[in-house]
C-alpha cells in the first residue's frame, strides 16, 4: 500500500470523509453560485441532454464524491450525488435529513423512489452508488419536454 492509499484508508476509517453526510449539500432553489461556493468551479458545464432548458454542472466535490447539479430558470432544481464508497441505507437517511425540512417521506417504490410529504421534492436511488433529489416542478417540466418530443413517452 502506497502513502496515498494509506492516507485515503485513514480518512475513510478514522474520519469518515467518504460518507455522504460529510459532504456539504447544495440546497434546492438556490442560485448555482451556492454550489460553486461549496464545491469549487464546475469541471464541466453544458446543456442537459435530457432537458436542454436546464444546465448541467458537474463537480468533483471531493476525492470520494461527484456531484451533478441541474440549474433551471436560474436556480438549482436537481442534484445527483455519486459516492466512491456509498452506503445505500446511510446515504438515504442523510438525504432524508438534509432535504426533508422536518417533513415525512413517502415511498413510491421503497429503496428507489420517494416523495417528500409536501409533494414539492422527490428523491431517487439506483443500484449504482448514486442518489438524487429534485423539485417536482423541474421533474414535471422535464417530463413535458420529453412528451413533446415523443408523444408516446409515459410518466
Describe the structure.
The chain has 155 residues and is α+β, with helices and mostly antiparallel strands. The protein has one domain (3-149). It is built from four helices and eight strands; from the N terminus they run ααββββαββββα. It has helices spanning 3-15, 32-39, 88-99, 136-149, and strands at 44-47, 55-60, 65-72, 75-83, 105-109, 113-116, 121-125, 130-135. The chain has an eight-stranded antiparallel β-sheet with strand order 1-2-3-4-8-7-6-5. The longest helix has 14 residues, at 136-149. 23% of the residues are buried. The model has no long low-confidence stretch (mean pLDDT 89).
Structural key phrases:
155 residues; alpha+beta; globular
Q: How does the SSE layout of this entry go?
A:
Layout: H1 3-15, H2 32-39, E1 44-47, E2 55-60, E3 65-72, E4 75-83, H3 88-99, E5 105-109, E6 113-116, E7 121-125, E8 130-135, H4 136-149
Antiparallel strand pairs: 1-2, 2-3, 3-4, 4-8, 5-6, 6-7, 7-8
Explain briefly what this protein structure is.
With 155 residues, the protein is an alpha+beta fold. 30% of the residues lie in helices and 30% in strands. The protein has one domain.
Distance between the termini: 49 Å
Measured by DSSP, the beta-strand proportion falls in 25-35%
Instruction: Characterize the overall form.
Output: globular
Please give the oligomerization state of what you see.
single chain
Q: What is the mean pLDDT?
A: 89
How large is the count of helical segments? 4
> Could you state the order of secondary-structure elements as H and E?
HHEEEEHEEEEH
Query: Total domains, how many?
Result: 1
What's the arrangement of strands in the largest beta sheet?
1-2-3-4-8-7-6-5
Low-confidence residue ranges:
none
Query: How many β-strand stretches?
Result: 8
Rg (CA only): 16 Å
Roughly how much helix do the residues carry, as a percent range? 25-40%
Amino acid at each position: 500500500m502506497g502513502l496515498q492509499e494509506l492516507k485515503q484508508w485513514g480518512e475513510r476509517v478514522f474520519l469518515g470523509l467518504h460518507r455522504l453526510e460529510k459532504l456539504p449539500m447544495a440546497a434546492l432553489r438556490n442560485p448555482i453560485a451556492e454550489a460553486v461556493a461549496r464545491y469549487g468551479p464546475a469541471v464541466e458545464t453544458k446543456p442537459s441532454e435530457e432537458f436542454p432548458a436546464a444546465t448541467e454542472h458537474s463537480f468533483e466535490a471531493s476525492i470520494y464524491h461527484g456531484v451533478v447539479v441541474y440549474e433551471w430558470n436560474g436556480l438549482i432544481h436537481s442534484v445527483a450525488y455519486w459516492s466512491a464508497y456509498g452506503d445505500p441505507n446511510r446515504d438515504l437517511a442523510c438525504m432524508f435529513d438534509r432535504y426533508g425540512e422536518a417533513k415525512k417521506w413517502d415511498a413510491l417504490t421503497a429503496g428507489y423512489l420517494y416523495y417528500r410529504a409536501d409533494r414539492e421534492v422527490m428523491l431517487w436511488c439506483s443500484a449504482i452508488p448514486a442518489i438524487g433529489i429534485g423539485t417536482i416542478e423541474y421533474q414535471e417540466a422535464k417530463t413535458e419536454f420529453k412528451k413533446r418530443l415523443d408523444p408516446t413517452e409515459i410518466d
